[in-house]
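Ticket #4471: structure export looks truncated?
Reporter: QA, pipeline team
Priority: medium

Steps to reproduce: submit the single chain below to the structure queue and open the exported record.
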Amino acid sequence: MFSLRDKIIRNVYITLFSLLLLILTLIFSNYFENPFILPNFALIAIIYFALYFNIFNGLIASYLFFYVYGCFTAMNPYTYAMAGVIIFTFAFYLWKKFLSDNIIYEIFITFISSALYYFLIFAISFIYFKYRYNLIYYVLFYLLPVSAVTSMVSPIVFYFFRKIDYYRYKRAQTGLKI
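Actual output as written to the record:
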């Protein structure tokens, strides 16, 4: 059995890696007329939380994580916080339907969750803030490419999360239920 010290170290490492992903997402954000399509690392972290956390800890973590993310954007932070909670809940129930160790399912669930996240942000900014976008243009040239890039990068980020999350990963390898 692992000691309390090992569990604390595991949680500190996962928190620090998640904050690093949040910083990378904010630095390489697509909101600043960036010509490259870059993945949303914060979204990948929330999808990982949906895979390995229970529902209550994951909801709190996703709310706080995306609230901090929303504080550095132009929109209301609660918008991003609620979108993060909705995406966490959606991904949590998708992970219950599919196998968690298959890389194809990781890519699929990340793509669907990312597309839903960007559609939620589009819908909120279109309805509430009265921003005028062309939906077809938004879907074809922003939502689908960013979702595809995010889903293609997600197995690499999941690999690093699994390496950091050694406690839970070792127990899953021995076949014990968490």
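Status: closed, not a bug. The export was complete when the record was re-opened. Leaving a note from the reviewer for reference: The mean pLDDT is 84.
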